[in-house]
Amino acid sequence: MLHLLSPQMSSTGFARSCRFRHFCHNLQPRLTRTLLHAFLDPTKALPQHYGAIQGLAALGPNVVRLLILPNLDSYMQLLEPEMVLEKQKNEIKRHEAWRVYGAFAACGWPMHA
Q1: How many CA atoms are closer than 13 Å to the CA of 87, on its beta-carbon side?
Q2: Alpha helices (H) along the chain
Q3: Most Cβ neighbours (<10 Å): which of 13, 68, 80, 105?
Q4: Cα 39 from chain centroid?
Q5: Which residues, at least 6 apart from 64, have a Cβ–Cβ distance to it below 8 Å?
């Protein structure tokens, strides 16, 4: 479970550091781009997607509205098979998928399943 906690802690910590962007004016755009690429990359592991979602959500509702919501339907098409016992026999991967789904639900985003 530690591998699921670490991405959340690091991504939200980086997102909070954007409050101090007077030190580095391009920190938030760079961080946003990095998190978005991690979220949209289907080759990344689900814990990385989880951390990216948490980090993007920590950047605020505008980031969610502009970057996450437009990609939610296509992402859910990839995530839903990972959540079903008949399609994903690996219990750890199913748990990771449900954890990602929970990250969406915790943010109040419209969900399908």
Answers
A1: 9
A2: 2-17, 27-40, 46-58, 61-63, 72-83, 91-106
A3: 68
A4: 6
A5: 56, 57, 107, 109
Q: Tokens at residue 81, please?
A: 């098979």
Can you read off the two tokens belonging to residue 57?
A: 């959500």
112 CB-contact burial (10 Å; exposed 0-12 / middle 13-18 / buried 19+):
exposed
Q: Is 8 left (phi over 0), alpha (psi -120 to 50) or beta?
A: alpha
